[in-house]
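To close the section, here is one more complete example, presented without commentary so you can practise reading it yourself. The ligand is G3I.
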Amino acid sequence: MISLSRLRLTAFLATSLLCVGAPTFGQDRSLKDAAQGRFLIGVAINEKVFLGKNATEVGIVTSHFNSVSPENCLKWETVHPEPGRYDFSAADRYVAFGAEHRLFIIGHTLMWHYQTPDWVFKNPDGTPKNKAQLLEELRSHIQTVVGRYKGRIRGWDVVNEAIDDEGRLRTDKPWYRILGEEGVIEAFRAAHEADPAAELYYNEFSLWLPAKRPAVLQLVARVRAAGIPVAAVGLQEHYMMAGPSPEEVGETIDAFAREHLPVMITELDVSVLPRPENYAGADLAALQARKAELDPYPVALPETVERALAERYAALFAVYRNHASAIKRITFWGVSDADTWLNNWPIPGRHDYPLLFDRGDHAKPALPAILDALARP
Ligand code: G3I
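Output:
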């Protein structure tokens, strides 16, 4: 007969072995455990991860995160590169990775003005498609993609970035020039019909801007009024060191909570690099000429900036912790600084440091800073 103390010892050893077997990369706590009961903790992954080409990053993802988003592999240009031709080879592997590791799998994104081929908007003779034709293309794409992963992809960024910073529908883009707001509503309708159980999200950046937020609230209200459930608004949160302030971040979450709309932080990162003024229309050659000023840390991040980044993340997570009832998920936009999109935007070839793991996949001080912030009541 096994004694109680022997049972306790066995249980203790089993737990210890489990801890040893689940490395948390220099930490004694994992992010997803620290956020347990508050929100999911996700990360956007690229092919290196979901094809298993970087075992360390696979370990990081499975030990610290309980949700994944596809950085690029489910975008229109990848899954539907030509009329009538779908290519799900990468997306299938992404979904299989998420299922194998029991992660909450996100789909991203069904309707966006980037990474969507020109042919979507044009007839073979080059003339623009009319509204009926483009609606049919949109509905057919969404039914095919969402239908393929029905029951496996649990939440979809259905529409991405339809509103500009002044709060107007982006009618300079073909989706909205041709379809108007009806395009947004029909995208949500098609996604809901294809998988009624999937959560549907509207995903947007810079929602801390006062002019932009009401327009998104009204747009989502009209989708809901059409009888289509919108589970949450995605706040992308590609932030800078200097802003937005924690107060602005908190106010943004409150504004959606007041309208009974939960939020998700869908694409979190914090750039430490200077952002050149007027970069959107800037001459790339002129920016390259200022590379030393605009790419100040080509070899390593100075200790002071590293510490400031950790403090910035701690301040953000203090806000998230205090607003936990309104937040369903927080997703980092990438695993390591080596692969962040910010190395190539708005200027290609810079060295940014916006994530929790460095170029060698080692945990940065930002990780324990977040764990500490989450540990507070
Ligand atoms: O696939 C090609 C490859 O064939 C080619 O050799 C290579 C050379 O540049 O480019 C590859 O395409 C790149 C693609 O990422 C896949 O790596 C594109 O140039 C590059 O522009 C593209 O950037 C992505 C960006 O969306 C496009 O707008 C980033 O990885 C991705 O992180 C970023 O993610 C977006 C979200 O989807 C929506 N919110 C904003 C966020 C940041 O821009």
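Once you have examined the tokens, check your reading against these statements. The chain has one domain: 12-375. The longest strand covers residues 263-271.
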